[in-house]
């Protein structure tokens, strides 16, 4: 292998650099440097450590612990519900009968059955679980994103990890979590500043009414409200345009149309420049990656091979997890996938048929395919997969809104939820903590959102002593607790 002379790392990218050199150019050169370093390391016989990554699957609305990973078959009928537990590949470990694929793969994942916080609010619960902070700041507002918010885990991960290749360090897809009143706080950079926002890949149409977008469209879409079908069942899932994270450019570039025209011009200019200047093959490869329209097609998971789509599921859940897997493979360190939008897992009514027919099938299929792909490719040992929501659900089964639902469900419940973790050094087939006999409160080894966030940061290789700094330069510890032991 013949490698070009090792390239000297550049200084950190500044706003001026971006505006002068062009967005695509800077990202491409970064990828070229990485490629050159890897080539020289391979030539010298140096074995580079595998990049560490996290895929955080967020069950928006809050999934029931009783009906997923912590069934209570001996509890009264008013608590245990309609589903039966099935044994997994791990003796003595049981989960819901409607998650058979995950049950067959229990050697790859473990459970935390005792994660707890104090909020039963969608907005605050989401804030807590996506920032890893149980206590919001005094300025917190559940209906407004503010610069004084704690930064999201995805923002801190992007700040504290080195970018790989030409992509941002963290990404969120397929859309932000919202309700009819607006976008939930806790998803952005907050005190870190807008230039540390994660890369929001807005892949789907936006719903315009509560419950209009629930389940995994198109084949698992339960867009029912008050028993009537929504006026939208033609939601789209589209590949993203390659662009920088929101907030890195000045206000005059915020307009989407202007920004896309700017990037297209950059692509054409860079392609011509690469040919004229006879860049080394790494730089040409980096420029070609972004200049070639086939790159967009490669990221368009809706056009993936039919066998791949069959394994993941040709729906928004399957496409999102396939996209997450590809993004991690090409260089994104943390990908947060919001499985559903507001209302999807928020089953105050019709809980059991909606889980059985619309949520469990696409989730079981897509997550299992993701774990298989990561395992078979050797990426699972260095990639942590986390499944959590903003809270659990009430032990009691009741119909809180009989005017909307024909059948009962469960309410919001912050005191305990179950979290699944796989890969990233996790010992498969183990269970951390437990809930009480009714699945209402932790009975042993309680864990907090701070512990979960620390586990994510640890899996990314972020040092224990790491700090992040706000816009005024004030330091804050990344770790607010110890990673979950065991």
Task: Give descriptors for this structure.
486 residues; 2 domains; 13 helices; eight-stranded mixed sheet
Quick recap of the structure?
With 486 residues, this protein is α/β, with parallel strands linked by helices.
Summarize the topology:
Blueprint: H1 15-21, H2 23-43, E1 53-59, H3 77-80, E2 85-87, E3 94-96, H4 100-103, E4 109-115, H5 122-131, H6 153-160, E5 170-173, E6 178-179, E7 182-183, E8 199-200, E9 215-216, E10 220-221, E11 224-225, E12 228-229, H7 256-277, H8 281-291, H9 294-299, H10 306-312, H11 316-330, E13 334-338, H12 351-377, E14 383-389, E15 392-393, E16 412-413, E17 417-423, E18 431-432, E19 434-435, E20 442-444, H13 449-459, E21 467-469, E22 475-477
Parallel strand pairs: 1-13, 1-14, 4-18, 5-8, 5-13
Antiparallel strand pairs: 2-3, 4-17, 6-7, 9-10, 11-12, 14-17, 15-16, 19-20, 21-22
Description:
The protein has 486 residues and is α/β, with parallel strands linked by helices. It has two domains: 106 residues, no CATH class; 368 residues, Alkaline Phosphatase, subunit A. The protein is built from 13 helices and 22 strands. An eight-stranded mixed β-sheet has the order 8-5-13-1-14-17-4-18, sandwiched between helices. Strand 6 and strand 7 form a beta hairpin. Helix 2 packs across helix 8. The radius of gyration is 23 Å and the shape is globular.
């Amino acid at each position: 292998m013949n490698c070009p002379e090792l390239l000297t790392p550049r200084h950190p990218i500044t706003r001026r650099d971006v505006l002068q050199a062009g967005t695509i150019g800077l990202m491409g050169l970064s990828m070229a440097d990485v490629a050159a370093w890897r080539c020289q390391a391979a030539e010298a016989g140096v074995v580079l450590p595998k990049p560490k990554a996290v895929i955080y699957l967020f069950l928006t609305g809050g999934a029931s612990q009783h009906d997923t990973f912590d069934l209570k078959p001996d509890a009264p009928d008013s608590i245990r519900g309609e589903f039966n537990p099935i044994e997994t590949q791990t003796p003595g470990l049981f989960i819901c009968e409607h998650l058979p694929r995950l049950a067959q793969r229990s050697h790859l994942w473990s459970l935390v059955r005792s994660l707890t916080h104090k909020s039963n609010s969608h907005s605050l619960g989401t804030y807590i679980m996506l920032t890893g902070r149980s206590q919001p700041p005094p300025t917190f507002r559940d209906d407004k994103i503010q610069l004084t918010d704690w930064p999201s885990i995805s923002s801190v991960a992007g700040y504290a990890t080195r970018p790989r290749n030409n992509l941002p360090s963290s990404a969120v897809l397929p859309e932000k979590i919202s309700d009819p009143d607006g976008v939930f706080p806790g998803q952005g950079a907050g005190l870190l500043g807008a230039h540390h926002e994660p890369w929001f890949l807005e892949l789907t149409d936006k719903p315009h009414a509560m419950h209009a977008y629930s389940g995994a469209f198109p084949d698992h879409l339960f867009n029912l409200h008050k028993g009537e079908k929504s006026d939208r069942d033609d939601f789209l899932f589209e590949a993203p345009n390659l662009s920088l994270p929101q907030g890195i450019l000045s206000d005059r570039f915020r307009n989407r149309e202007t920004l896309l025209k700017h990037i297209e011009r950059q692509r054409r200019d860079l392609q011509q420049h690469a040919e004229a200047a006879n860049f080394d093959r790494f730089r040409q490869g980096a420029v070609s990656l972004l200049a070639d329209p086939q790159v967009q097609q490669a990221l368009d998971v809706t056009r993936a091979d039919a066998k791949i789509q069959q394994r993941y599921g040709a729906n928004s859940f399957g496409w999102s997890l396939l996209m997450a897997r590809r993004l991690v493979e090409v260089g994104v360190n943390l990908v947060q996938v919001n499985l559903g939008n507001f209302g999807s897992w928020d089953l105050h009514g019709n809980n059991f048929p909606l889980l059985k027919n619309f949520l469990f099938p696409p989730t079981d299929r897509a997550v299992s395919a993701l774990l298989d792909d990561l395992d078979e490719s050797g990426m699972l040992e260095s990639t942590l997969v986390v499944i959590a929501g903003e809270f659990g659900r009430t032990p009691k089964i009741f119909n809180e809104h009989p005017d909307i639902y024909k059948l009962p469900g469960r309410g919001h419940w912050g005191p305990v939820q179950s979290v699944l973790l796989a890969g990233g050094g996790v010992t498969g087939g183990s269970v951390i903590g437990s809930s009480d006999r009714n699945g209402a409160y932790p009975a042993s080894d309680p864990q907090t959102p701070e512990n979960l966030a620390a586990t994510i940061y640890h899996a990314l290789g972020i040092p224990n002593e790491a700090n992040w700094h706000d816009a005024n330069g004030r330091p804050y510890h990344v770790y607010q607790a110890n990673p979950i032991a065991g």
